[in-house]
Design goal:
Layout (H helix, E strand, L loop, with lengths): L1 H34 L13 H66 L7
Length: 121
Amino acid sequence: MAAMREQIAVLHEKLQEAEAAKVHTERLLEEARASGPHLPAVVAFGDDEAAVNGDTNGLDTLLNEREELLKARDHLIQNLMTELKEKKTQLARHEIEVWQGIERRGVWKQRLSKVGIRLKD
């Protein structure tokens, strides 16, 4: 039972770390979006739109990578939440079994005491 509690504690810690990373990443993304208009403008001379399109594609690629990282992190958080729920369920089942065993022992102890047999605790 102690090992299961340790596993739950570890999973809970990982979940908190993932949530903290999520908040940090979202804050960075918001800062990047907020500072976006203040970035220096790309000056294209003549009909050289390749440089402008390249920078736009680079920013789009960067945003897409961030979105993919956020999705991966959300998936990881979801997996950790599922695993934590499973561990909590296992722990609850184990605790129920232990308490049922204690109750059965108490019933048997009481029955045996009626016929004169005393068990030590």
